[in-house]
Amino acid sequence: MKKHTPKIIPLPTKAQVLEFILESPGKVGKREISRAFNLNAEQRPMLRQIMKDLEQEGSIQRGHKRKVHKPGLLPEVAVLEITGADAEGELLARPLNWHPEDPEARDMPPPRIYVLPVRQGLSAVGIGDKILARLQATGDYSYEARVLKALASAPARVLGMLDTGVNGLLLRPTDKRDKQDYLVARGDAGTAGPGDLVEAELLPGRRFGLRQAKVTENLGSMGNPKAVSLVAIHSHGIPCQFAQDALEQAEQAKGVTELGSRADLRDIPLVTIDGSDARDFDDAVWAEPSEDGGWHCLVAIADVAHYVQTGDALDQTAYERGNSVYFPDRVVPMLPEKLSNGWCSLRPDEDRPCMAVHFWIDAEGRKIRHQFVRGLMRSVARLTYEQVQAAIEGVPDLAVAPLMDSVIGPLYGAYKALRAYRDERGALNIEIPERKVLIGEKGEVLGIVPRTSLDSHKLIEEFMVTANVCAAETLEQHHTPCMYRVHDEPTLERVDSLREFLKSLNLTIATGALRAQNFNSVLARVKDTPNEHLVNQVVLRTQAQALYGPENRGHFGLGLHRYAHFTSPIRRYADLLVHRALIRALKLGPEGLQDEQGNELEAIGEHISMTERRAAAAERDAIERYTTQFLADRVGATFAGRISSATRFGLFVELDETGASGLVPISTLPDDFYVHEEARHALVGRKGRREFQVGQRVTVIMRQADPVTGGMLFELVPNGTMRPAARPPKSSPFDRSFGDDDEGDSIERPSSLGRKPRGERVEEEEGPRKHFTPLRVGGVKNKAFNKTGGKKLERAGKKRVVRFEPGTTGRRKKDAGTTES
Fold this sequence. Notes:
Blueprint: H1 14-23, H2 30-36, H3 44-57, E1 61-62, E2 68-69, E3 77-85, E4 91-95, H4 103-106, E5 112-115, E6 130-139, E7 142-150, E8 157-165, E9 168-173, E10 182-184, E11 196-207, E12 210-221, H5 227-235, H6 244-251, E13 263-264, E14 271-274, E15 283-289, E16 295-302, H7 313-321, E17 325-326, E18 331-332, H8 337-343, E19 351-361, E20 367-378, E21 381-384, H9 385-392, H10 404-425, E22 435-439, E23 445-450, H11 455-477, E24 484-486, H12 492-504, H13 516-525, H14 532-542, E25 547-549, H15 573-586, H16 595-598, H17 601-631, E26 638-647, E27 650-655, E28 661-665, E29 673-677, E30 682-685, E31 690-693, E32 697-706, E33 711-716, E34 723-724, E35 761-765, E36 775-777, E37 780-782, E38 790-796, E39 799-805
């Protein structure tokens, strides 16, 4: 009988093994690879060596139970640190070890991780805690984390107001995302008492079920009107104390007394145009008609680089702060007042050193050429926006009347040309109303009014934008490092999401590569219609976020190929860097950009982008708190408003009267199962097809306004707020938007907007309504939910059903283990 010879299976190559791993939908081990290639026991040691080589090369990464996967993915179980919460109150985390052995992954930001509610029997977790968690990918570069074990305590410090408790003092956190109170023993309060705003450090252990804290700093009475901005400063970590050596350097600063090599601009009638409450004037403007029918314009900016030089004490504190922060009752400046309101302020009839740019434009507003100089100037007048606007409209006051022919008329003529060119190139025109808090002499809130947009504002904006373009072009021409202001075009994913949303409104947007004009076309079609507010909001959320960096990627929102901030070195460190770079490129003095700093522009850009976001968040926080304080005595009143955000746990409504934003809990909506249709930004009733969509007008009753946290709760007034829902398109994600300042290039996303969705629908059924009580959502208690509505989770595929059952405790009871996608 012929002996059977076993068939020899060739060993796969390294490339074949890698291809199999990369194309596998999940993580694989040696067993799966051996089966795929029909390998026998004798060949497995050779396979082990191939996999070891791939791992050492960084082509694959080893995970849980020795499974491997393509690099960049997180393992199934990892140690995470909870870093914050999104606008919906869901906890966010990041891995403690972010691919330390993978050089390419180290340069990538970690994926976004959402922490699921802690199951019953485990300790609650909060911001600052370290956890061991099981991870499940839920979409493109996002994960859900299920807490297995809490590993460390929450952050060392907490800001809050002391209140009287049964067993001592209670510390109520000012952060509305932190719903737990802390116990402060009488001996641990120091000089602070009930009603005081304090900073406290957390102590180990619990008493009477509460975590313990010890007061480390008494910041004064919470009843003090200035406490509102103080809370925002401390909550967001805004540096507010200058180092002594920086203050001493500012005191020793002196102005320029001799012209030297500077250009003499003192005979040119430059004027500053600012808000009526401004105290620092860092830019001045002038214009005259040119012989070819165009305009010769001049923008002069305070020469901050003369006073703040690379590496000195003032430079270090300016870098740390990154920018000034503006609150309704105070300013936290980037530079000490001696400079910001003194030597670097272009006061009338006083000689001031400046960096200036002449630029010439044609009658259509297109720039023909430009020239930078380092000069000495003398402003002829400090004007306000309101004064200039009145003059433009033909009613100048006594201060402006003598300047009409020589200054105001030419400025307005040049502005009209620049504005025409802006419209031609198609700068993005999103209209989102802003609000201004009016503060009295004693710090009290007098009112909250819409922020007006005048032609005089736009005049300064267009002059500043053109000067910024000139700065970027000059630095490129001289091959000098430049800190660009970058605003990328929206991602294809976001545009596709917008397209799906617009389809539900019978609107379309162009396909292929988009320009800002394409978005403007959509906005023009909804102008003065019921959907105007809604579409503006969604278009805003589609945009990327503006940032700083040494790589030029253009400015999509302004329709410009290159852009850099030059015009506000008093209040933005980025502008100071651009001034130094121009001085170096044009050989205008010894204060130019140093090689060491030029080589660090990428890291500096990341830092000042962070400080800008930090400042914007603190400013929004202060406005929200002032607004809540202003409305606190109107609980029970009825207000008109519109839905500004639809989330899985309710609706955010923005009031017409003040712009205040508060939550309408989903438990208070009319009886139904509510599906969160993320692509349509709506909650839709499953049975009755009742719909609540962003932009929809509603009437609400204020049920709660907490001045300590700045949070407000509303309830919809029945009838007249629902409409039949159209068939929803597929869900698709929206993320953050881009950022807008006085140069019009940095619109910030409203703080009430929800997090990036992960493609899952949520259906919610409500039990009988009683009164509000805290309920944890994503690890953070949320007062918006109903005491009698226990939440029972059932998961099936991509759909999560949340039922409210009468008579239960109001907490999430069970999680079946499937995840959102």
